[in-house]
Design goal:
five-stranded antiparallel beta sheet, PduO/GlcC-like (chains A, B, C, D), alpha+beta, Heme-binding protein (chains A, B, C, D), globular, Beta-Lactamase, homotetramer, about 20% strand
Chain lengths: ~150, ~150, ~150, ~150
């Protein structure tokens, strides 16, 4: 079974930032968490706001918390706002239900971690996360809405 | 007076999971709390998100907190979102107002604990909680909306 | 690679309680966490204090937090009290440095979770945790002091 | 004025880990914060405890919090334990007063950030932080005790 190690997590971070640079995106913050929601690798580019570390980690943590990528979480938060208000408190603010939180899966379909990216438009953040995960030889699950 | 003990609480957990398996449900997290809101028995099935323990416990704790099952809480949260935002803070995030939090009552009508289940649709979570409570010879109150 | 699933975690809980019964121990609270520190299986016996769930989970979480069993943590806490006061705050109270928090390892030596037990003397709590882990076919690391 | 940017922060992290590898140290967690105490770059090596991210960040944050490296903080915590217990609460657990939290200064003597490292003995953690900072062309202040 493939799991997430620092080498793969660092590759995800660097590939995500390479993709952002190639597309001329705004400065990004990239966090990679393991399956338990604990930080493995992180980079915040220059000239980014001081809440970005919490947002990037919250996108990833929220995905792991519910077992759903941020795009699916965003849809659910729109349909059930009171539930997501409760989740924000229950998680001490660690659930940020927005695209850009992407589950990392291995070939067996196990969740081995998550990436959270913040700084550009949510769709762009997500595209960088997906690119980074695929460059590391893993499978990205951004959360398809139903 | 019948109260909740570990034997009954464990029976509730296992019966709820048997019901879920017989219905082909998604993997569940099941928490049983005593009347004081303290955990007695708990099982989390494989491949479930890391926030599920807090959600399952929050459904049960919220029911005990207000003396109302999660279905009634959900209706109230829809009508009074600011109040439930305040409750989330007041309870340190331990109130999750969603079906699937079910009060456990004895024959005298006393609340002796609560079950919280998370993982499938709220209606399915609730059905498993009710089934488990009844298999343990106790009375389930999921919270009828008014 | 062997990891921890609900079946093994439940076996650990039940075997630990069987051992306690065979030795005539006081009522126990047993928590099994996965490698990320999230609850998998839990039982609290009748007539136990309401802080026991937090203590049992804190013994297990502290072991995972530092990668050291509770017996080693207890020794370190005695030598470096200010550091452990800081850890209590940094972890939001989830580090309880006492014997009875035991790491669960697989044959490859990976940490796959932890058991925390509270209710009897720390040495007895620890003995039940070790017994439970071994009955589940896994390797117990209670933390040898140096 | 030289300030800390992502390029320098990443250089610090990687150089610290190279030094640790050359000395055969245990797996480390390395965090670099900017002058405002916000995360810039971070790596956690494989097989490290789940509290290590908080400890590494807490060593760096505590140094920035008091304007003193972790070695000086450790000495003060020993002399004034009640004050540091209060700081732990006041900072929400973000002050870890132990060697291994090292201020980063520029040629003008301004504090531009801090490094926190956790995983090996505090002296070794600190040596890696100092090495990393110097490799990035900046000045390390580990906090001389008085």
């Amino acid at each position: 079974m493939t799991s997430l190690n620092l080498e793969k997590a660092s590759r995800i971070v660097d590939a995500a930032l390479e993709h952002a640079a190639s597309q001329g995106m705004k400065p990004l913050t990239v966090a990679v968490l393991d399956a338990g929601g604990h930080l493995v690798a992180f980079k915040r580019q220059d000239r980014t706001g001081i809440l970005r570390p919490a947002i990037a980690q919250g996108k990833a943590w929220g995905a792991l918390g519910m077992g759903l990528g941020g795009r699916a979480l965003a849809q659910r938060a729109e349909m059930a706002p009171a539930f997501f208000t409760a989740l924000a408190s229950a998680s001490d603010g660690r659930v940020i239900p927005v695209p850009g939180g992407v589950l990392i899966k291995n070939a067996e379909g196990d969740v081995v971690g998550a990436v959270g990216i913040s700084g550009d438009l949510p769709d762009n953040d997500e595209a960088c996360a997906v690119y980074g995960i695929e460059q590391a030889g893993l499978i990205a699950d951004p959360g398809q809405p139903h």
